[in-house]
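From the shared-data thread, chain only:
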Amino acid sequence: MINVTDLTRAQRNMSHAQRKNTFGSRVCRNPFIGIRSRLRMWLARRGFGEEQQTDAVLAVSEACNNAIEHGYAGRGGTIRLRFEHRSDLLTFTIEDEGVWRAPEPDPTRGRGTLIMKATMDRTTIAHNGSGTRVELELKPRI
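Structure, as tokens:
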């Protein structure tokens, strides 16, 4: 079961000029089906082309997958997402409250951070005692 809810009901009534969207998802088997489509629609409404939509969805998905695999390691938890569009920059923030676990070496895996860095203009990953915060920035090519 997918449980995607807005963190605040007030955001449903926000004006388009505020250009922010925040929502969370309980970690479950496949929690990102709805999030990917919501992100793609959010980008399309702002005039972003297919290539940038695909890059953003891929990078956000990788950040969320890392939170599940390395932050929560199969345990439940919440991932918070925030998307913000300013005239010259998209910012995606992905946060978890898990404890980071280094991956086991595997030559067929471990490309998530590389994918985020390749598709975004800036990628920042910060681990602290209360979780991990990933910030992704993308400049519009409209």
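Helices lie at 33-45, 50-72, 112-119.
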